[in-house]
Design brief:
47% helix; 13% strand; 4-stranded antiparallel beta sheet
Length: 217
C-alpha cells in the first residue's frame, strides 16, 4: 500500500495529470455512466478525487476535517444527507506528508446528479470549505467545477459493494420496516393473533415462518 500511495505523487502515474478526460482502468468494473470515470457494482458507484493542498494550508485543513468529524451527527448535516438520499459513505484523507488530499465516497445513480446535489445542500458548503484548501478548485457552484472533479478523479482498479442491488433509500426503508415489525412482535395483540386458531393456516405458511425466524435471529 505504501508504494501505491507514493506512486500517486508521481506525475508519470497520476492519471489525471496525463489526461483530463480520464479513462477507466483496464479490466476494472465499469461505471454505469461510461462518459464519467469511476467503477460501479450494481446500483453503487465509487467517486475518488485526489488534489494538491495549497502550501501553508495543511493545518487549517486538518482543523476543518476535525470539526467536520465532530459535527458528523449534527441534525443539519444528517438532514442534508437524507435530502440527497444517494450517499452511502464518504471519507477525507490528508496524506503524503500533508501535501496531498483525497476524498472518496460511494453513491447511487448519475455522476452528474451526484455533483449537482452537493451544490444544493449544506454538503456543498462543506465541500466549498474543504476544497478551498486545494489548488485550483473553482468553487462548488462554479460552472467549471465538474471539469475540475473530472481532472482530479481517479477510477478504482477494483470496487466491491456488500449490497450492490440496494440503494441508500431502499436500505433506509428496509430498516424502517424492520423496526416497525419488531415493535409489532412485542405487542400482546400479535402474540394473541399467533395463537388464534383462525390464523393457523397463515402462521403455518413457509413465508410467515421464515419471517418469524428472521425476526428471532
Amino acid at each position: 500500500m505504501a508504494s501505491r500511495v507514493q506512486a500517486l505523487g508521481d506525475p508519470r502515474t497520476d492519471p489525471w495529470q496525463e489526461s483530463p478526460a480520464m479513462t477507466p482502468t483496464p479490466g476494472a468494473p465499469q461505471s454505469a455512466h461510461p462518459d464519467r470515470p469511476g467503477a460501479s457494482e450494481g446500483v453503487c458507484s465509487e467517486f475518488t478525487v485526489f488534489a494538491k493542498i495549497k502550501p501553508g494550508h495543511t493545518e487549517a485543513l486538518r482543523e476543518l476535517l476535525a470539526d467536520i468529524e465532530g459535527k458528523s451527527a449534527d441534525e443539519g448535516n444528517r438532514a442534508a444527507i437524507q435530502q440527497i438520499g444517494t450517499l452511502h459513505d464518504a471519507r477525507y484523507v490528508i496524506f503524503e506528508n500533508g501535501t496531498r488530499f483525497m476524498f472518496a465516497s460511494v453513491f447511487d445513480g448519475s455522476w452528474d446528479t451526484y455533483i449537482d446535489d452537493f451544490a444544493k445542500t449544506v454538503v456543498g458548503q462543506v465541500f466549498e470549505q474543504v476544497f478551498s484548501h486545494t489548488e485550483g478548485f473553482p468553487g462548488i457552484k462554479d460552472p467549471q467545477v465538474k471539469e475540475w472533479f473530472l481532472a482530479h478523479q481517479a477510477p478504482a482498479g477494483a470496487f466491491f459493494s456488500a449490497y450492490p442491488d440496494l440503494t441508500v433509500r431502499q436500505i433506509w426503508r428496509d430498516h424502517e420496516v424492520d423496526e416497525a415489525f419488531e415493535e409489532v412482535l412485542d405487542t400482546p395483540e400479535f402474540r394473541a393473533a399467533l395463537e388464534n386458531p383462525a390464523n393457523a393456516q397463515l402462521v403455518a405458511t413457509p413465508a410467515f415462518r421464515h419471517l418469524l425466524e428472521l425476526a428471532a435471529s
